[in-house]
Amino acid sequence: MSSTTGERLRAWLILGRIPGVGPRVAGRLVEHFGDPTRVLAAGRAELEAVGLKPALVDAILDPPEAAADADLAWAEGEGVQILARDDPRYPPLLAQLSAPPILLFVRGDPEVLKDPMLAIVGSRNPTPSGRETTGDFARHLAACGLTIVSGLAIGIDGAAHTGALEGGRTVAVLGTGPDRIYPAAHRDLARRIAQKGALVTEYPPGTAPIGRNFPRRNRMISGLSLGTLVTEAALKSGSLITARYAVEQGREVFAIPGSIHNPLARGCHALIRDGAKLVESAADILEELAPLLGPLTAETTEPDRNGSGDPGDLDADYLRLLENLGHDPVSPDDLIRRTGLPAQDIASMLLLLELKGYVSSCPGGRYCRSTMTN
Amino acid sequence: MSSTTGERLRAWLILGRIPGVGPRVAGRLVEHFGDPTRVLAAGRAELEAVGLKPALVDAILDPPEAAADADLAWAEGEGVQILARDDPRYPPLLAQLSAPPILLFVRGDPEVLKDPMLAIVGSRNPTPSGRETTGDFARHLAACGLTIVSGLAIGIDGAAHTGALEGGRTVAVLGTGPDRIYPAAHRDLARRIAQKGALVTEYPPGTAPIGRNFPRRNRMISGLSLGTLVTEAALKSGSLITARYAVEQGREVFAIPGSIHNPLARGCHALIRDGAKLVESAADILEELAPLLGPLTAETTEPDRNGSGDPGDLDADYLRLLENLGHDPVSPDDLIRRTGLPAQDIASMLLLLELKGYVSSCPGGRYCRSTMTN
Q1: What average pLDDT does the structure give for chain A?
Q2: Cis peptide before B183, with omega less than 30 degrees from 0?
Q3: How confident is the model over B231-270, as pLDDT tens digits?
Q4: Which residue of B has its CA nearest to A274?
C-alpha cells in the first residue's frame, strides 16, 4: 500500500525536524526504506541494521510530529508551498547536487524555480559603481529570460534583486526560516520578490539568522543556477565561497574585473585567475550560457560581432529601434519614448542587436549604434 | 684566413643596406657562406646556386659600400654602438627569435641589453589613472632590477620610461633610424634614457618614422623581454600586436584589469581571456618571472604571504623600515625621511617586505603594515 503525497510530505517534514538528520542521512534512509513514511514506520532493529548511531535511532523512534504538523498548518495559513525532494516541482538543477535539501519552503510561485537561473552575488559593502553595474546586469539578464538568484543580503544581493525585478523575475534564497526576513531593511524588497518570483529556504519556520546556516544558503544559490556571477567581492568573502560551490557543482563562474585600486575587485580577479570567465557585458554571459539555454535565446546564439550583418534581416520593430539609435549614447527610456515599443521588449531587443553587432552598450546603461569597422 | 671584427661589422652593414635583404635572407646567406664578408666576396654563380632571385644577386654584386661607410662614420661621431648579430654584446633573448635583427644601433650603454627586461606597453591616449599605474609599476620593477623596455611613444610608453628612470634603467626601442627621435615631444626623455639605459633600433640612420616599420619595432620590444605587460589598451591596438609577438616568442604576457566602463581596459581583458596573467601588483610579475630571473630576486623567490614570518629574520635596515610603517598608508618619500635609508633602496626593500607579507601596497603608491590575519 503506497503512501499519499500528503503523508509523504508530512513524513519528510518530520524527518527534517529530527536533530541529526540532515539532507545526507535523510537521503540514505529514504533510499534504503523506499519512502519517508517507511523510515518513520521502521522499528529499532531495522534502523540499527542501516548502521545508524543509537542516539539517532532513539530520535527517529520519537519523531517530532507536533512540530511538523505546526509547520504544515503555518505554511497553509501563509500560502507558503512546501516542496519535498520527491515533489515534481522540485527544481531540477538543485536535485543534481549531492545531498540536495530535503525540503524547500517557497513563498511565491514555485514554478519560477524551474526557470533557467543565474546567481548574482557579491559584497555587502559595494562601491556605488559596483552596485550600479550589478543592477544593470541583473535587469538586462532578467529581461532576457534568466531568473536572477541571490541571497537577499544588503549590498550586491539587494542590487541584483532590485535590478532583476525591473527586468523580469528573481529568487531570493534565505538563510533563515520562511517566517523570517533578514535583514529587516529588505522586508519590502522581499515582499516584491515573492510577488514576482519566490523566496525560498531549506530551513523550517522559526530558524533564526545564525551564521552557520549561511554557507548552506550559498550552496543553494549556486545550486539552483546555471552559473554564478560575482560582481564585486573582497578576497576571503562569502561570495567566493558561493563561487567555489558553483565550481564543485559543475556550474559556470563569471566575474567582473575592476580597477586594481578597488579592494572589491580582488575577489573577482582571484576567481578569474582560477578560471572564472571574465565578463564585460551581459552578452558575454548569454553567449556562454546559450548552449545550456536552448530555446530561450535561440535567436541570439549566432552572434555576428563584426557587424557585417545586413539590417535587412531584422524585422520592422528592430529596424524602428535601430533608426532611433545614433552614435550618441541614448537611454532605454528615451528609446521607449522615441519608438513607442513596450518597455518590457526594449532590453532584450537591444541585447540581440548588441550580439549581432549593430549596437554597443555605453556607460550608464545607454546604447549607441556600432561603428562598422569591418 | 678569417675576417676581422671590423671587416665583419662593415659587411653586415653593407648587407643590411642592400634592398631586399632582410634579417631572414641575411641569416640564410651568412649561414651558407660562413661569414658576412664571404657573402660579399661571392661571385654570381655562387649566389645563384643559393637560389636567390636574379635581381637580388645583382644587388649583392653592387653592394652599397658608401652608405655603410657613412653609417660607420656617423656612428663613431655620435658615440652610437653598432651590434651585429654575431657581436658578443648582442642581447641573448633577442638572438633566440627566428630571424633576429641583423644589426642594432645603440645609443647609450649596450650592456643594458643583457639586463633581465620587462616590456611595458599600452595606449597612446591612456586615462590619468592608467598613466599613473604604469609609472608606479615601471618604477617599482626597475628598482627591483628589471630593465623596462618600451617604444618611446606618447602615453603609456612615456609613462613606463619615465617611471623606470626614477627606479632604475630603461630601454627605448625606436621605429626610426638612430638619428631620429619620434615623437619630437620625447626628445628630452630620449636623452635621459640614453644616459641611464639605451635607445636601440634595427633601422639604419636616415630611416623616417613610417607606419610599416612599427610592427618590427613591437616585435623587438617583446623579443628583448622576458615578458610584456599591457597596462591599458584598446581592442585592436598595437599593444595587442606586441603581446601577440610575445606569445609567439614564448614569452610571458601580463595584463592589468580595469573597469568594464573603461574602453582602454578592453584590450587587457581580451588578453586575460586569451591566457595572459592577470596582474594586480608588481609582486605578481616578479613572482611569475622569479624562476627566470635567478639570482636577481633570489631573496624574493620564497614569498611568505600569510605573514607568519618572524620579523627577527630581517636585518637592521628592514626592521628600521618596518618600525616606521604603521597601518595608515605612508609614501616612500616619508619613509626615506623617517628612516634615513637611501631612496634607491627603499623601493626594493618595500617590495621584499610585501612579498614576505609584512607590508601592503595601497593606492597612490603608498604602503602600510599588513594585518597579520593568520
Answers
A1: 89
A2: yes
A3: 999 999 999 999 999 999 999 999 999 999 999 999 999 9
A4: B278
* pLDDT of the residue at B323: 78
Which residues have C-beta within 8 Å of that of residue A355, sequence separation ≥ 6? Answer: A283, A286, A287, A300, A303, A304, A305
Cα distances (Å, whole numbers) of residue A239 to A54, A165, A225, A354, B190:
38, 21, 14, 29, 48
Give the closest-approach CA distance of A340 to chain B in angstroms.
29
Q: Are strands B359-362 and A198-201 parallel, antiparallel or unpaired?
A: unpaired
**Is B156 buried (19+), middle (13-18) or exposed (0-12) by CB count in 10 A?**
buried
**Residue A349: half-sphere exposure toward Cβ, Cα within 13 Å:** 20
Q: Which residue shows C-alpha cell 508530512?
A: A10
- Cell numbers describing residue B327: 597601518
Distance between CA atoms of residues A124 and A231, nearest Å:
11
Give the C-alpha separation, B201 to B102, whole Å. 11
Cell of A34: 523506499
Contact call for B260 and A272, based on CB within 8 A: no
A205 in Cβ contact with A178 (< 8 Å): yes
Tell me the C-alpha distance between A296 and A144, whole Å.
8
List chain A residues with CB under 8 Å of B266.
280
**Residues of chain A positioned with their CB less than 8 A from the CB of B277:** 273
Q: What is the mean pLDDT of residues A285-300?
A: 68
Residue linked to cell 621605429: B175
Q: What is the mean pLDDT of the segment spanning B208-216?
A: 90
Cβ contact, residue pair A363, B261, below 8 Å: yes
Answer whether B258 sits within 8 Å of A257, measured CB to CB. yes
Minimal-distance CA residue of chain A relative to B261: A363
Report helix angle A214-223 to A238-248, nearest 10. 50
Contact (Cβ atoms closer than 8 angstroms) between residue B194 and residue B220: no
The residue type of B166 is: E
Mean pLDDT, range B33-46, rounded to an integer:
95
Of A129, A269, A373, the CB nearest to B257: A269
| pLDDT value of residue B80 | 98
Model confidence pLDDT, tens digit, residues B339-361: 888 776 777 777 777 766 677 77
Please write the tens of the pLDDT for every residue from A74-101: 999 999 999 999 999 999 999 999 999 9
Chain A residues inside the 8 Å CB shell of B256: 260
Question: Are B272 and A259 a contacting pair at CB < 8 A?
Answer: no
What are the start-end ranges of the H helices in chain B? 5-17, 23-33, 36-41, 44-49, 54-61, 65-78, 92-95, 128-143, 156-167, 187-196, 214-223, 238-248, 266-273, 282-293, 316-323, 332-339, 343-355
SS3 for chain A is: CCCCHHHHHHHHHHHHHCCCCCHHHHHHHHHHHCCHHHHHHCCHHHHHHCCCCHHHHHHHHCCCHHHHHHHHHHHHHHCCEEEECCCCCCCHHHHCCCCCCCEEEEEECHHHHHCCEEEEECCCCCCHHHHHHHHHHHHHHHHCCCEEEECCCCCHHHHHHHHHHHHCCEEEECCCCCCCCCCHHHHHHHHHHHHHCEEEECCCCCCCCCHHHHHHHHHHHHHCCCEEEECCCCCCCHHHHHHHHHHHCCCEEEECCCCCCCHHHHHHHHHHHCCCEECCCHHHHHHHHHHHHHHHHHHHCCCCCCCCCCHHHCCHHHHHHHHCCCCCCECHHHHHHHHCCCHHHHHHHHHHHHHCCCEEEEHHHEEEECCCCC
